[in-house]
Amino acid sequence: MDKAVHYLAQALLYALFFVPLVYISHLPTHRHMDEDMAVLKVAIRHPGEIIGECTSVVAGEGHGMRPAAMQQVTEICPRERSPLQLELILDGETLYRATVPATGLHSDGISSMYQQFHVPAGSHHLQLRMNDDMAVDGYIWQLDQEIQLKPAQVMVASFKEGFRLQ
């Protein structure tokens, strides 16, 4: 009889643990987004063009001021990179416009940006524009495309030698 009570108490304790666990994992529903929505993500990592041009060093100029290892240098080139100017237009409405600076101590690294937008599913006209050179007016890189988004679809726009949609 003692063993029966022991097994019954053990079963009751297991039930007290597993019933809430089953309830929490099955009954409450979570919707990440509305059923008629899709997600458009823009993820770009790109180095802007170098700002400025290399300058020649005249032989003997500053001869005593530089260490011996640097006296062979014939040109000095800037390191700073141009910031990226980005613009995302969906169906004629500007969703995102920003200037993304270059990273790094001397602004000589890669410019990075990530944004996501919840948009209605369906057909859309997408325009992505980017300028990676401050010396040029307007946008150098452009994507102008009709896209079809299904409900709950995630579309990613990235950049590598041109815009890509996945």
Can you characterise this structure?
15% of the residues lie in helices and 40% in strands. It has one helix spanning 2-26, and strands at residues 37-46, 55-56, 75-76, 84-90, 93-100, 111-120, 122-131, 141-149, 154-159, 163-165. The chain folds into two domains: 1-29; 31-50 and 80-165, Sandwich (Immunoglobulin-like). It is an alpha+beta fold and 166 residues long. It contains one helix and ten strands; from the N terminus they run H-E-E-E-E-E-E-E-E-E-E. The strands form three sheets. The protein has a four-stranded mixed sheet with strand order 6-1-9-10, with no helix packed on it. Strand 9 (154-159) and strand 10 form a beta hairpin. The mean pLDDT is 87.
In short:
The protein is built from one helix and ten strands. It has 166 residues and is α+β, with helices and mostly antiparallel strands. The protein has two domains: 1-29; 31-50 and 80-165, Immunoglobulin-like (Sandwich).
